[in-house]
Design a protein that fits this description.
With 102 residues, the chain is of the alpha+beta class. It has one domain. It contains four helices and three strands; from the N terminus they run αβββααα. It has helices at residues 7-16, 58-61, 66-74, 79-88, and strands at residues 20-23, 28-35, 38-46. It has a three-stranded antiparallel beta sheet, covered by helices on one side. A hairpin with a 4-residue loop joins strand 1 and strand 2 (28-35). It starts with 6 loop residues before the first helix and ends in a 14-residue tail after the last helix.
């Protein structure tokens, strides 16, 4: 079965979400996605050099499906639309306080 999220796409997703590296390791680096100063998702980027290295764990980590994750990396889905998806799931509060319900 083909990989949904390659390392190349994962890097683009992390950049789109302005994810911040929180931990470096031999096998992978950990990243946090923040909104209004609050961490709303944690994920990792595998350290291997293969650009088609699988990162199919990323959609679950980001609380979205594989198709939405691919759209994030390929540009049709914006950061604001991603945040709205999390709001619809009740994972990000609608108010300005930035509270998260993870």
């Amino acid at each position: 079965m083909a990989r949904q999220i390659t390392k190349e796409l994962a890097v683009k997703i992390l950049a789109k979400l302005k994810a911040v590296k929180t931990k470096s390791g031999k096998a992978h680096d950990e990243y946090a996605v923040e909104h209004n100063g609050v961490v709303i998702a944690l994920t990792s980027l595998r350290s291997g050099s293969e650009k088609d290295l699988g990162h199919d764990h990323m959609p679950k980590d980001l609380h979205i499906g594989p198709n939405k994750a691919k759209l994030l990396g390929q540009c049709p889905l914006s950061l604001a639309e991603y945040i709205e998806l999390l709001r619809e799931q009740g994972l990000v509060a609608s108010g300005e306080d930035g509270r998260v319900h993870l």
